[in-house]
Design brief:
6 domains, 6-stranded antiparallel β-barrel
Length: 692
Amino acid sequence: MAQYLVIVESPAKAKTIERYLGKKYKVKASMGHVRDLPKSQTGVDVENNYQPKYITIRGKGPVLKELKTAAKKADKIYLAADPDREGEAIAWHLAHSLNIDTNSECRVVFNEITKDAVKESFKHPRKINMDLVDAQQARRILDRLVGYNISPLLWQKVKKGLSAGRVQSVAVKMIIDRENEIKHFKPEEYWSIDANFFKGKQAFEGSFYGIDGKKKALKSKEDVDKVLASLDDKSFLVSKVNKRERKRNPSPPFTTSSLQQEAARKLNFRARKTMMVAQQLYEGIDLGRSEGGTTGLITYMRTDSTRVSDTAQSQAREYIEANHGKEYTGAAKKAKNSEGAQDAHEAIRPTNAFRDPQSLKQTLSRDQYKLYKLVWERFIASQMAPAVMDTMTVHLTNNGVEFRATGSKIKFKGFMGVYIESSDDQTNQKDKWLPDLQEEETVKAEKITPNQHFTQPPPRYTEARLVKTMEEKGIGRPSTYAPTLDTIQRRGYVALDNRRFVPTELGEIVTKLIEEFFPEIIDVAFTVKMEGDLDAIEEGKTEWIAIIDQFYQGFEKRLDIAQQEMEKVEIRDEPAGVNCEKCGHEMVYKMGRYGKFLACSNFPDCRNTKPILKEIGVKCPACKEGNIVERKTKKRRTFYGCDNYPECEFISWDKPVGRDCPKCNSMLVEKKNKKKAQVQCSKCDYKEEEQG
């Protein structure tokens, strides 16, 4: 009987695929890459066409030995790593290590780990795609040349442990630029005028639009006073009523970027966590023997395409018709990918549309369930009919002054019955419909209120916003977003403040040095061009050596200049104004991955560190002596405790407000629900009105 060896990346995937393929197949895991550039040196021979010096990764010897033993017993070996550049490179390295002919049909790829998809893929093995391998190899060599040449410079001139990279340096620069925009922002005054109108007893709201049919901006109180002075009285004529029907289309299924953004907004997941949980869902979950055992629940999660197979679309429409009705079924859709999308494989979708989240709730972990539900709902909604909205705009005039009132209501929910994007979810899609107003009739304005406003600076980047901006600018690729965000935090270049990125002093110093001596590394246009060059290598349009050489010729010259001219930078720690309780030396502020903390200036002799405690202005309800401070768990969840800990062990997940309940005298706390906060009793059912 013939014996076949299949090599995948992870043990979880190996177990699932072996069950699908049957007794003739033995499936082993390589545990990712088996060869890479050495850590102790650059590992790129710049004098010999930038040839990489690959070695077996430390610790992978036993894995490789096991694979070689299994390979000797096999009649045929299939390499089934992930369907992207990295997976192709892993297959190529395995082929070299196991003496497999790269021109033989040894490569198998599948976009989903389901029985049908896996068995079908083995009917169509192919050669290793060297264009994909070269594109991955070019990225790896470029990053190594940049990192292993600039990083030692930073160690000498700034501090040990620093690093520089093409994509990470640009991401840090974007965060710094945004911070500078905020610092230099000058708010501008503007005004609005709102009115409460009544038709009989029916109330509705409207806002000032302009004068004599032309839109007018209100820049000062003087502008407002002129408008108010020109009103005859509080009677307004309904001069025009516009009613129309508007369709709203669903969002396409997820790409890597849009999944990370939506998981951040809806589930509060960091990019790294999103990709980790998505990997678990892709590789397979044990659903029990009756449901087919271990099965992949979503398609491959590193993609920039919104394309969906005809089979998956048909299955989704069948589900929608059976569960919602034929009128909710959308027409077959053709993907509209963003410019530069590689479209190597499908969008992220469930492998079986009929496997709804509720049916899996008892099987999946909490995080797996949340992410699967998000993917499933987005995909099903993407194949549904558009929502239909009735909209109404009313023009109200008084002596040439025009106010406008708008309203809308959902006429047909369509896809909105299943899923709405997060930015729209916050409004809960409440109908705001106007009374039945007719042209030429008169309504009364009971209350006219002027409001002063000031323009706001651009917001700091959240993880979701930074990923979206990087994608829009063409910086990085689906596989690079999460590791890039993780790296810039681990290096201490940026920190998270209220889930928004702020640059550290270290990040600003390093970025300034790179900008001065290696401007192309930090230039967005250059980084985007380089991504385009890597895509061109993948498509077989250009040679990888030419791209590397084009970059390195100029880079090498700037490296020589930097080594001679870059001055040493001394980073002084900011004194905290308190002494270390262990050794008496002064405590200083340090910046870590999760923001500032206190550390002893006598490091490394004294390694005392303390969190910076934020007082909330409330006395401890337990000991009555200490103050309540805000603390963080290891997973960065906020809780509240007494600053007399461990003498006083009071803790609360909800923020104490410093008042007692009027009903039972227990502690009142503030509970947050999305953007609103409500004060309520920690013991009984007493509640106060919600605060916006």
